[in-house]
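B., you asked whether I could sanity-check this one before it goes into the benchmark set. Here's the sequence:
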Amino acid sequence: MAAGNQEHPARRTKSGAETGLTPRKGMVAMEERLLTVEQLAEYLQVSAKTVYRLIHRKEIPCYKVANQWRFKWDVIQEWMEKENFRAPTPAGKGKEKK
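And here's what the prediction gave me:
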């Protein structure tokens, strides 16, 4: 293969379809983006356990694919607006020191 035609292995799914995954973050391109529990947790800046808690309380829109939870990017964006959800601030920001 010519150097200019090589693709990064993380940019392919098992089917070989282009997904737009970035090697560092594992996030998919904007169009019809599906997120895993771990990806959503990273995006929301919460733990995966918190995401599972939201799932089991039926507080977040999701569905299963092959026994794994998935989240549609656009639906999550709408949910965040509707619920006025704000990701927590990074540790140490906005807190008073004792």
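One thing to flag: Residues 7-19, 92-98 have pLDDT under 50 and may be disordered. Otherwise nothing jumped out at me.
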